[in-house]
Amino acid sequence: MSDYLLEMKGIVKEFSGVKALDGIDLKVHPGEVVGLCGENGAGKSTMMKVLSAVYPYGTWDGEILWEGKPLQAASIRETEDAGIVIIHQELMLVPELSVAENIFLGREITNGGFLDYEAMNAEAARLMAELKMSHVNVAMPVSHYSGGVLQLIEIAKALGKNAKLLILDEPSSALSQTETEILLDLIRGLKHRNVACVYISHKLEEIEAIADTVTVIRDGQFIGSAPMSELTIDKIINMMVGRELTEKYPHEEHTIGDVIFEVRHINCYDPLNPQMKKVDDVSFQVRAGEILGIAGLVGAGRTEMASAIFGYYKGPHSLEVYLNGEQISVKDPEAAVKHGICMVPEDRKRHGIVPLLGVGQNITMAVLPRFTQGGLINEAAEFATIRGEIDRMGIKTASPVLAIASLSGGNQQKAVVSKMLLANPRVLILDEPTRGVDVGAKYEIYKLIYELAKQGIAIIMISSEMPEVLGISDRVLVIGEGQLRGDFVNDGTLTQEKILTAALTRRQMAA
């Protein structure tokens, strides 16, 4: 009998003749946490889709041994029955169904031929309590909740399947620091119950905190595997990118000009509960060439605020928008783009891409009239632009016509950024621009942000990663419970502690 719970040997997976995986190995002991690291497009998600039978046996070469025996699964149901459960980077929840219905989707509890909602709600509540999320109403549709809560619902869904091996693909990408600590503590508890985990994350501090072993792949090839005790974050980065990164954040001089963009009195109300305010009378200005960081805890109202500015917020809201001192009307995203206000959204799957369209079509969709003459698209001109953007952004794709959904999350993000840049923005809103992006690609995005600032574009960057906000922002706004709680010049004295204190300190109400 093998000592390993899982062994993947010489795995090869091709797409249109291009090898996404080229002889990959992975070994996991019972109760072990293996950190799986690599740049975007390295093959991490593809590897896990092979393991979980998203890509069934026969569509790839190599061998998988599960508890010492060959695993030749034809479906996800077979791998889940064996005890392998994957939580994908892109959430797999049905918005219209309740939290409990999502958790038990496909394995509903019945009584006398009818759904036993009482039992499902009780068990769902127990699972959410285990994740320190007792306040979540499991009878409410998941559409009522945002980012971090949805990710934890996915994790609760996986826990309910009695996994022997839990695969977590960027599980903390939408979580706050507090929620991430809850997740890491949960994984430590699973280890004590002999549940193994494969933890995929670009946040190497989390890998360092939780992993027993680290396996690194690059360009679809196995680079190495070693105990975390023998590694450092710098060594992992070197293995991932094949070179040393001497600093995480570039520091490039750029000139900050006059105020070119201003929003006044932003108020947003919950779409499902119009009595609940999500953004409470926030006003601010941005100067030409300025990088304005917006920090705050998950659920503080940052994304709602950005959506309202871009004309996309679905609930009741009001605000005044000024560009170069003149008030403008931004009723929808099309109007925003025409005024030169562009946005890279937080949830690229729902709001940033059209999954079944090609990579190139996604890049040019916001400026398609530019390539249209007499009702016909100049395909040569469009293709030349697409090729240029793929090269400029370093998007890894086998072909510009490949469906964008087949790309890694980070490469999808690069395509969304490219789409907005083609619109020649004067104001660019970046909502979590490096979410799900590897350390090397992050550095390139930061350099791009500085380059845009040098061109005089006003940058508004929302990020849940406070080191990132401090690393590249000229000024930082802090949002807490929908209110503006701080406006700080990032002059070298600003710290994470100051930002967090501001986020947690309630605004004093006038007497």
Short description:
This protein is of the alpha/beta class. The protein folds into 3 domains: 6-241, P-loop containing nucleotide triphosphate hydrolases (Rossmann fold, 3-Layer(aba) Sandwich), CATH 3.40.50.300; 247-340 and 425-511, 3-Layer(aba) Sandwich (Rossmann fold); 355-424, no CATH class. The chain is globular, with a radius of gyration of 23 Å.
Describe the structure.
A 6-stranded mixed sheet has the order 6-9-10-3-11-12, sandwiched between helices. Strands 18-21-22-15-23-24 form a 6-stranded mixed sheet, with helices on both faces. The protein has a 4-stranded antiparallel sheet with strand order 2-1-4-5, with helices on one face. The mean pLDDT is 88. The protein folds into 3 domains: 6-241, Rossmann fold (3-Layer(aba) Sandwich); 247-340 and 425-511, P-loop containing nucleotide triphosphate hydrolases (Rossmann fold, 3-Layer(aba) Sandwich); 355-424, no CATH class. Strand 16 and strand 17 (326-328) form a beta hairpin. The protein has 17 helices and 24 strands. Helices cover 32% and strands 26% of the residues. Helix 4 packs across helix 5 (147-159). The longest helix has 16 residues, at 177-192. It has 511 residues and is an alpha/beta fold.
Give the number of DSSP strands: 24
Structural class comes to: alpha/beta
* Tally of distinct domains: 3
Amount of helix: 25-40%
Name of the level-1 CATH class of the largest domain: Alpha Beta
Distance between the termini: 73 Å
Biggest beta-sheet profile: 6 strands, mixed
In CATH, the architecture of the largest domain is 3-Layer(aba) Sandwich
State the fourth-level CATH superfamily of the largest domain. Answer: P-loop containing nucleotide triphosphate hydrolases
Spatial sequence of strands, sheet with the most strands? 6-9-10-3-11-12
Unreliable spans: none
> What's the gyration radius in Å?
23 Å
CATH topology of the largest domain: Rossmann fold
Q: Could you report the average pLDDT, rounded to the nearest whole number?
A: 88
Principal-axis shape equals globular
